[in-house]
């Protein structure tokens, strides 16, 4: 999430009421999670296991819960609760703005785009030309939709990321300050749900077709010309490369990648990154290997019955 204008380290420290290490006029341009962080960004870390990863990342400023040696060219914000303070930054620079109309005045809708009844389009949404948005679709604030996109009834684009910290008092939500970017010629079926990024974008690239009742988690990137069949659930922070086919009821854990041209058969459970191939089963393995296992087990059972 980029700020509308750069801030100084001093300004952010004052907002959070925390101590800082580094030059007071150090430029801070946004906040991001570790996997998408860029120069100028703040990244937060609150567990010693990830200190080195955060300190050595591309982030310019590290929001951290311990005084440590500051790497050259970087700065620190010392907080007793980085998770809380990361939320404070998100709420300050990207506050929730209640809707005043079904289609916000600040939304931009391209020529020849058809909006069916009962559609909600939030603040600062941009929709391209020649799109068809069917009844009861909800498109949350700041989402971007390309040209020639079809979105079927009851689909929700831009809902919050499923990201929580377990505290003694209950689960504390990490506030979503990112968005959803959908490129040209994408088709979304009925009742799909696409979560916004926590700090970046959930991204669906050109020409991908998605069936009914598919869920796509926060910050996931889906490549060009992918096919995703009904009732598939894709967790957050995944990278699905171009021309991947995912059949119905596939479940996918977070933080993995699937190589271009891969096929995942129906009802598979994907628990790790996949190189190009055809996969089936839970955990998903190469289709031919799975068939050999099934035949082997069938023969064992058959021999036991004799």
TrEMBL record:
GO molecular function ontology, one term from the record: N-acyltransferase activity
Keyword entries, A-Z: Acyltransferase, Lipid A biosynthesis, Lipid biosynthesis, Lipid metabolism, Repeat, Transferase
GO cellular component: membrane
One Pfam match: Hexapep
GO biological process annotation, one example: lipid A biosynthetic process
CDD domains in the record: LbH_LpxD
UDP-3-O-[3-hydroxymyristoyl] glucosamine N-acyltransferase non-repeat region domain segment(s): 25-91
Taxonomy, superkingdom: Bacteria
Xref: Gene3D superfamilies: Hexapeptide repeat proteins (2.160.10.10), MurE/MurF, N-terminal domain (3.40.1390.10)
Keyword Transferase applies: yes
Keyword field contains Lipid biosynthesis: yes
NCBIfam families linked to this entry: PRK00892.1
Database matches in PANTHER family: UDP-3-O-ACYLGLUCOSAMINE N-ACYLTRANSFERASE (PTHR43378), UDP-3-O-ACYLGLUCOSAMINE N-ACYLTRANSFERASE 1, MITOCHONDRIAL-RELATED (PTHR43378:SF2)
Protein name (record): UDP-3-O-(3-hydroxymyristoyl)glucosamine N-acyltransferase
